[in-house]
Amino acid sequence: NEVLHYGHRSAYRAFLEQHPEVKDMAKHIKKIYPDFNLGECSCIEYDDLKKYGATKKDWGKYKGAAIAYTIKGEEGMDAYDYQRLIRVAKISYDLKYISGDELSELYHKLNREIQKKYDSFEQVHRSYYAGEYFRRNFDSRTSDSDDTDSDGDVVYYTYHYRKNNESYKTMDRLFEVKLK
Question: How distant, in Å, are the alpha carbons of 85, 88, 96, 99, 137 from that of 127?
């Protein structure tokens, strides 16, 4: 948790403090998408949230913050930092900075924390994409960026992949196995 204190969740919480209108945006998202799921992350448009104060300049931050708040309130972006730490741990192992046992221990601790805070793997996944929107301040539907790895498109395709792929469904089942 010390590492996460300074991660993106810290920037997200500061953004919430500076922009309390994000909470109203989250309420609006819940109103238009009562069963808010991963596929609907990419459906949220600038026009949906601009009446609450979202600006074009910071659209990705507003969108990411609103999605995160819809997911889990102030803890809505925590899974993003946990997921990034998991990736750093794997890179550290690949570069021989840590042993296999240390990697396993880190994975176990991080995954246990994720399970404590989130109800499903899809919720974790939405948190990750909210973090990407927020970190990059980017949305494929409103940006002139030439970035070919657009977040909105990735969310859309991931959602449809998830619905039709057995290995992704397995991830949901594995998430249900509670770690001690």
Answer: 14, 18, 29, 29, 15
